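Saturday, quiet lab. Running sequence design on the structure tokens for the scaffold JK sent over.
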């Protein structure tokens, strides 16, 4: 309740506003959108949690306050308006007016239609960005593997110089060739997504900022950047010794976290217009309900040490990211149900969770037992 309390309160308020604004139908659609966003974002929460656990409690609170404003106002409200404004040539005021007209998605010139028409470039941008996250994770050598028969050869491929760039560009070329008259804009959007990935990923070099920007969780000393990486990457249950970044390093991590969080939002924002063209209901369902719960789930995973206890969750989340990136690229030319998108992510996370439990039980069973006479 401590973690999800505010999420529940805000959900009740949002549903109340939806009921007053759109009646029972508005209430039902807002609830559906909230569930859709949560189901689509389980993998998002896991990835966010792995980053957030490196931050101090202060920056975790910033993620829940300033970060939620960025997620709700930025991605769920301003982002669609900017897309419509840019692609249609309307000024922001006219874009808002068009949004409030609530035209259907299949009627040319409506807000929903224009945003849906811009889906290929949005999908290319987000799909390539997420694909690079997946590839860089899978192309690294790791002590622990989940789907070994796939992850072992992927790690070998990763030994090739610039392997992720080669695979990412190949995927982008294939997607653009299938995009028909939108080949050029899809290619440009995908390259922009790749550039942004390397830009925000390159911020990692700036995280190595010295001892003043790192503090131990127990406050008894400081850790260097190498120690942080080792401890942040450490898996397994028990005592979690995790270095916390503060100051400039935490701010840069926060920016990186927000960019990743935004990338996960593309499919939900676009898909919402297949359910309703009302921007108010979308903001209430995706933003105030979905985004708030995803953030609370992220903080819950951090505070409970779930990622350290269930070691395959990282892998499951990244496989879900890979699946989502492929789905986004496929949707450039082919409609894919949001139900399918959501279920794929949930199934990967659920499978990773179950196999983590099985691994923990196997390790516990193999551990040597201490005779009672010795322990006494």
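Result came back. Writing it out in full:
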């Amino acid at each position: 309740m401590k973690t999800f309390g505010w999420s529940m309160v805000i959900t009740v308020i949002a549903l109340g506003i939806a009921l007053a604004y759109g009646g029972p139908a508005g209430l039902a659609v807002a609830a559906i959108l909230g569930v859709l966003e949560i189901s689509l974002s389980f993998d998002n929460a896991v990835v966010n949690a792995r980053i957030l656990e490196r931050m101090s409690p202060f920056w975790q609170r910033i993620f829940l306050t300033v970060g939620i404003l960025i997620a709700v106002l930025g991605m769920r409200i301003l982002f669609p308006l900017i897309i419509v404004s840019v692609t249609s040539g309307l000024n922001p005021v006219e874009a808002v007016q068009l949004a409030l007209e609530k035209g259907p998605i299949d009627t040319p010139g409506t807000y929903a239609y224009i945003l849906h028409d811009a889906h290929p470039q949005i999908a290319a941008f987000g799909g390539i960005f997420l694909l690079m996250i997946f590839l860089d994770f899978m192309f690294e050598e790791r002590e622990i593997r989940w789907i070994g028969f796939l992850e072992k050869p992927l790690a070998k491929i990763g030994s090739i110089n610039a392997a992720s760039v080669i695979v990412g560009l190949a995927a982008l070329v294939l997607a653009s060739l299938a995009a028909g008259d939108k080949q050029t804009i899809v290619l440009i959007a995908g390259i922009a997504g790749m550039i942004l990935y390397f830009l925000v990923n390159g911020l990692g070099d700036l995280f190595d900022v010295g001892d003043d920007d790192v503090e131990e969780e127990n406050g008894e000393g400081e850790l260097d950047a190498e120690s942080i990486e080792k401890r942040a990457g450490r898996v397994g249950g028990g005592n979690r010794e995790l270095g916390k970044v503060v100051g400039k390093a935490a701010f840069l991590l926060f920016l990186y976290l927000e960019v990743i969080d935004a990338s996960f939002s593309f499919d939900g924002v676009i898909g919402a217009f297949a359910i309703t063209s009302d921007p108010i209901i979308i903001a209430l369902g995706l933003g105030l309900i979905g985004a708030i719960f995803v953030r609370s789930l992220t903080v819950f995973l951090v505070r409970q040490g779930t990622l350290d206890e269930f070691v395959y969750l990282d892998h499951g989340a990244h496989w879900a990211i890979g699946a989502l990136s492929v789905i986004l690229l496929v949707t450039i030319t082919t409609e894919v149900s949001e139900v399918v998108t959501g279920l794929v992510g949930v199934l990967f996370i659920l499978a990773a969770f179950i196999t983590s439990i099985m691994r923990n039980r196997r390790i516990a069973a193999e551990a040597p037992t201490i005779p009672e006479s010795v322990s006494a």
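Notes for JK: The chain has one domain: 5-363. The longest strand covers residues 214-215. Ask whether to fix the surface positions before the next round.
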